[in-house]
User: Fold Polyphosphate:AMP phosphotransferase from Thiocystis violascens.
Amino acid sequence: MFEATKVGRSVSKEDYKEQQEELRTQLLAAQRDLRAFNVPVIVLVSGVEAAGKGEVINRLNEWLDARGVQTFAFWDESDEERERPRYWRFWRSMPPRGEISILFGGWYQTPIEHRFKGHCTDAELDGELNRIVDFERMLIQDGALIVKFWFHMSETDQKARLKELSRDDKSRWKMLPEKSKFSEHYAAFEQVAERVILHTDRGVSPWYLIEAGDRRYRDLTVGKTLLHSIRSRLSEATTEEQNNSLVSPDLPSSASAQITLLDQLDLSLAIPRDDYKTELKRLQTEINELAWTAYNKKRSTVLMFEGVDAGGKGGAIRRITSSIDARLYRAIPVAAPTDEEKAHHYLWRFWRHIPRAGYITLYDRSWYGRVLVERVEGFAGDAEWRRAYSEINRFEEQLVDSGVILIKFWLHISQDEQLKRFKDRENVPYKRYKITEDDWRNREKWPHYKEAVNEMVARTSTKHAAWTLVEGNDKPYARIKVMRTICDTLTEALKRDPTPTTGYVPCGDKRIEDVKKPNGNH
Amino acid sequence: MFEATKVGRSVSKEDYKEQQEELRTQLLAAQRDLRAFNVPVIVLVSGVEAAGKGEVINRLNEWLDARGVQTFAFWDESDEERERPRYWRFWRSMPPRGEISILFGGWYQTPIEHRFKGHCTDAELDGELNRIVDFERMLIQDGALIVKFWFHMSETDQKARLKELSRDDKSRWKMLPEKSKFSEHYAAFEQVAERVILHTDRGVSPWYLIEAGDRRYRDLTVGKTLLHSIRSRLSEATTEEQNNSLVSPDLPSSASAQITLLDQLDLSLAIPRDDYKTELKRLQTEINELAWTAYNKKRSTVLMFEGVDAGGKGGAIRRITSSIDARLYRAIPVAAPTDEEKAHHYLWRFWRHIPRAGYITLYDRSWYGRVLVERVEGFAGDAEWRRAYSEINRFEEQLVDSGVILIKFWLHISQDEQLKRFKDRENVPYKRYKITEDDWRNREKWPHYKEAVNEMVARTSTKHAAWTLVEGNDKPYARIKVMRTICDTLTEALKRDPTPTTGYVPCGDKRIEDVKKPNGNH
Assistant:
């Protein structure tokens, strides 16, 4: 596959100078158009050692307008990153719409390294690559352009370059505290790289193999490829936007006729007042202890609450938070997004609040807004909310795989009970603020919401992240059910180590000893 | 001072129930008004051990509308926090306008602990408290309300409470991995607390001493105090805003008549083309090495560029970034703030990008915008930009004290040279995007800018953070001067350990051994 990168192409100094000026002008113009069309661009820079990835990135930074370009490297993991699901760091580096992020290696770096060092099998690598394909597709569907560069050169050229670098005082290779050993196993590394590239070279996010032997050729080719990619992405923009505007909000007409999962909830379930008090106290003590145990074991927890308006989310959440030490949790009420949030993929704002190891985040409403309010109100297009199910499943899978204990609640009440609560709220002074025009409006769309909820639960109640449906007409019953579910799940989860569901064990360098032995790849 | 907190006040269950309902209603209403008036509120919760700070915080979270309240504790420092100036973590927890942040201990926690443990002297503590007073004043002048609670109880009550806690499974005190020893030295702790409170009890941000023996009394008093503080802050809002609108942008009329520091720059300074090339290459190699040395020594660097439009900031920055490994630096072009940025103090957006230990941030324009463009264009009121000088000095002092190497450049060119460059830009295709209507407009305000720059340099060229004025008419000369300054400063700074200028040595628990011995306070 890499033959084409070893033919020895080069560009003369004069040609370079001439072409560079034209290219810069066009790149700057393309950048302005990116901003106008609100397209975010992710540039991934990977390749063999000594191919000059850092040089290329400096060159791009020189050519592009610095307003709107950020560069991210992932070699120096902080504990805030280490203690969260491994994609958190990539979400942190996502460009807002209209801007460019240049990523060193990005999400390809660790899988390649792990396979090369023998920390995972080919099959496990393939599984991870499948997830990468899904991840990239998700970003692209959200409007992003992903441009992936792989820099390659022959073994002889690489050896020469490394020799040159070791003489050059400016060389990173020389300065790096720990030299890595990829270059000493040229063929093995090439083999892993080929597997990765073949597997992830999709039409929507292709790899560009760049011959890196000649610096001028390399840089010009990168610049031109980037320019071409931006231009062709922008030429689609108009057609696509036209299509988008043709999509009408998808309001199923026969929704009210369906019998849903929610209809089967026994909303008459209740608990006597006295039992409630005793049980509540017991469960609060238990949750408090479990939160400390989780802290000491460095396991994090995500508690997610969705439900009918006035379904009792707030009340349940308060019973939980008041039993946990305030130092250990953060409650995130999900309201309208800020403009920084709007400039990113809809999952970005939730990634922001994923807890560090040992901590708890409670989401009062969540990423499911995409398939609930955004679907019903038509804020998300048909294609958008439809693909959100699998995006959400992948997201939750990542949380669980990283050891996060994820518990999802749907608090349900009957339409009559809702009416009663709305009226109550209007009568209790300190509850009045909770009821707005919107609530009454949403109420009229009850059948549509019901269908959306039903489909949501059906499509996103996975083995690793099941929904707990809570019969909410009796508030005490609902609270106890929520808290008992939390206690049971935490108790169970804290007994054992997190077990990734995907077979691919990500590990930082610190944990390499713990992982299975190299399988003789080098 | 604490006598009033030991009289044994209490509230009956019935009174509590009755008053609570009324209080909650009013707190919620006050919260809505906060949002309407865009006032950010910072609640600091401090006090003796076992006074129930966590309980109080849970209570406030129960009473307030969760949308708009966040709680922050500072006991579990991450490396991202440890590797930055110590106030970075507080800036991270600042509420946006209209919202409330509740901080456990906040910026008082460490000074109290350090003095109590004998890691600093009374004089050093006082110095730190002065800085706190300035810091709080700055936030208040920006519109914030700060409500500081100190929970206190008699030694007997505290002993009883600790006994109770050690029996209670829900107690944090019991669960905490390391029990601290404040309570075993009641009198010594009280003495430090008194010093701190007396020193920082200012009219604009008073301390509220709360008797913590009775939980109901404690919680009600906190709620009422908070309510009262918000109400009285809001009642000022209207008058204040009227005053603000009376302040006209301060455009000095005789500016053009003054001879300024800038006039004394010898703009004819230049460097021959050949010398430039040799010297540039040498300096780039040197900067590259110094960046790696700084990385290995975990010293961070802030390079800040201000200057006349078309003064050559971008060109200088590119010469620097292209010589540093792209993994080590981040360049921050300062443009219009996002809405999340607008919702905070103007320094917040710069704190966001302060580098971790070992890294470099380049600011292309900076916090000095406050006393330059915001002053001249009238975006900041008279009082606002006038007090910004000392706010900025304090900010930079903090950076330097934490070991950051800070280098500030002003790139200056003559008015004629600017005109020439503007015209050039319009002729070079890939430079055209750099010139806008604004640039021509700003040019007309040259004398006003000149005066603002002059005052800025005079007021903010401190011993620890001096300005380097760069004669910029000859681009090569300017670039060499910038790079040589960076090399010299870094070389010098990396030779020695950072020396705090303030006499107060902040230290995390990890470094306690390194600090001077306890002075027998316990």
In short: Confidence is low (pLDDT under 50) at residues 241-257, 506-522 of chain A. Residues 215-246 of chain A form the longest helix (32 residues). The CA atoms of residues 294 and 358 of chain A lie 6 Å apart.
